[in-house]
Amino acid sequence: MTALYVRGGQKLKGKIEPSANKNAVLPVLCSTLLSDAPIMLRNVPEITDVTRIHAFFSDLGSTVEWDKDAKTFRIDHSTIPSGAKAKLPQAMRASIMMIPGLLSRLGEARLEHEVKGCTLGAREIDPHVAVFKAFGAEVSYEQKDIVFSNARRGDGTRMWLEYASVTTTENFIISALTANGTSQIVNAACEPHVQEMCTFLEAMGAVIRGKGTSMVSIDGCKEFKPVDYTFVEDFHEIATFMALAAVTGGDISVRNTRPEDFMLIDRTFEKFGAHVEHKDGWSRLDAPEQLVVQQNFTSHITTKVEAAPWPYIPADLLPIFIALGVKARGQTMFWNKVYEGGLTWHTELSLFGAHTLLCDPHRLITFGGDKLVPATVTSPYIIRVAIAMLMVAASIDGESTILDADPIRRAHPNFVDNIDSLGVDVRWED
């Protein structure tokens, strides 16, 4: 068990350089298996899943140099021997995005039947299986393994997703690059990290049309170029630090070179009376003394924060706004339209003295503004839920303990050091 001890009550102030988005870094790393050309990646965070991918590439026979201090990751897959066998890491969901590259390179990939991730609810692999089959792969079972195989380069195809799934979209795009001709995906996910993966692939020589929209066309690519690519800042982390300013009454500026992604996120902060300013590559939130839920013009309608696939508010950010709802005076309804297990943790907030009501598996109401007290709470294996608990603890005078807080390390390698620099007294204990 990893515990995080937080002594709160201070207004957080300062400037932060955020890390890259793990949801961009992981698919990019997986997609590098398509290429034999040398690849240099910069601003790569030292997180658990990158460590697992580094080990997998090394075991496979790739030449990999990871300078953690410089945040550089140099890859050369041309050294993978013919006949290499690949059983993908079971402990991370991103494993499934290595399958297109392994099928193209080795003709086979094996995946344990139960792919782990976080505890947000059912996350099926059937849409991915449908993608691989559409590009000509055969899928079978051998004991506890799912075996994907193909004997030749597939042909381009067209697919209409039932749901705008991020990883399914990414797997389709990567698979399409290994096929003959042009492929098209309809109802594609268009999150910033999906767009960033496409930007990286374009730098390698891919031809992708419709990036950032719900309809994307991809030409098959037979040869990839060397590339030197730097990841942009994680919009999740930028929003999280601004939320920390809001919940503690502080003043925090965060490096942000893509403020165009923040229009709806900014409006959501405004619902709690907090204003975000973007200027000269930085985003700043200077919080009011008291967060207050803003009333709708239609006064009998409860203020809502609705999370769904981009361009809605991302479901991954909903917990940080729930933390604001707990602190802000007034009522807010939070609606998670993505995960059926995304709100069950709300009972832990009652240990801080918060008043919440779960309407059903997807909707939660906070009745904010009550006096909160320090507490010991337990985080589920969900990254930003652990952070939301930390946010609430940071806003309360006294010491709180967050048990099982390790999910924070999955996405934010320097998160605790950063908030310590802003004025939170915080420490890990393993």
From TrEMBL:
One of its GO terms (cellular component) is cytoplasm. Its main location: cytoplasm. Coiled coil: none annotated. Pathway: Cell wall biogenesis; peptidoglycan biosynthesis. GO terms for molecular function: UDP-N-acetylglucosamine 1-carboxyvinyltransferase activity. Its EC number is 2.5.1.7. The keyword Cell wall biogenesis/degradation applies. It is found in: Cytoplasm. GO terms for biological process: cell division; cell wall organization; peptidoglycan biosynthetic process; regulation of cell shape. The keyword Signal does not apply. NCBIfam families: PRK09369.1. Belongs to the EPSP synthase family. MurA subfamily. This is UDP-N-acetylglucosamine 1-carboxyvinyltransferase. It comes from Aurantiacibacter marinus.
